[in-house]
Design brief:
The chain has 391 residues and is α+β, with helices and mostly antiparallel strands. Among the domains are: 57 residues, no CATH class; 127 residues, Beta Barrel (OB fold (Dihydrolipoamide Acetyltransferase, E2P)), CATH 2.40.50. Helices cover 25% and strands 26% of the residues. It has nine helices and twelve strands.
Length: 391
Amino acid sequence: MNKEEILNKYAEKIGQPLEVIQKDFQELVDEETTIHPEATEDDKNNKALRRLGLSYKKQLRSPAKWFEGMVIAISDTFDMVRKMRAEAIKEFNENPQNAVTSGITDEEGIPLDPRATWSTGRENPGFGKPLPEHKYICNIIGIATKDDGKPKIFRMAIQDSLAENSDKIPMFAPVKFRANDRSEAEDEEFSLNVSTVTVFVEDQTISMPTPTEVIKKFCTNYAVDMNALQDHHSANKDDFNRLAIIEADVSALVMEPTATGSRRMIVEDANASIEDLDATGITCWVPSKINIDFGETSRVFVVGRTAQGKKYVDGQATDEDGDIMMNVFGVYAIPEYKVAPEVEIQPLAPETTPEPEAESVPAAEVAPAVPTPAPNAPADSQENNPAPSSW
């Protein structure tokens, strides 16, 4: 069996596109070239194929299941040990004896994990050991099928390098991935755990509806009318996993990043703005990991978490609640109403409301509106991919 046949067999066996297998193979050939520059091309290829086969055998032994679907939300990435490390170092600098006796640092000032058990009551195997430099985590939400079954919303927390590089996870595109399913068959949503073999790979050969259809058909439980955002937030503000999806028009974009790297987007209810040009829009904070590939006046789906701070007057916070805002975890411009981004977007007036402090994951609801379609507007992608019955 020649190299091409072996790579095709690997692709079929582990369910990955051939291009991904070829890329993995070439990376190993490049490694072999660095390690054994004197080896012949045949030797390097054979060694790379052997190593590739061994790594795939490890994947095949994993109990993780295959899923196909679409990612619609990725929360902010949070460093779980940053605050603990900073507090431990500060205490050691100010009172080293107390830091050591309380178990938050060793005698050299290295921060230690002081948690004997987790919140679940389980023992923490890292108790008393040095804290890592970083421990990244973020949450992913999407819609997926398993074994050609019913499409369901899924939620999964990812960690470490996968979380640190979450900006590379394809959004609003067909993806294939593996994860450990800890939900029951009768559950309305998939509750997934990350696996050592979890990778999100875009695969345009997957037959599924367009992003617009997926959101409107499978995310109705989280669709919120813009006029109902305040009620939604009041009812769900104590739910860490609250999620809201709104459909709205973009009236302004401020691409100048804030101190935290977010961009400001103002969205409006199109029907309300036609009747009342003074209608208040919703401020959305879009992190740098979210690609803004559209311009003002586009119609978008915004997926995220509602937030509400205090009202500011002359730069000072009052006791009165401020306007509802959204921390964005995903934004999709509807192709029929998508406007190309401008080279230079006009700035808004100076901000009077500070950006809310980011939490970590989302939960909540999508409401349709009816702007005039752009002439010759492109349809959603995947239009030539008829969706299978499971979708």
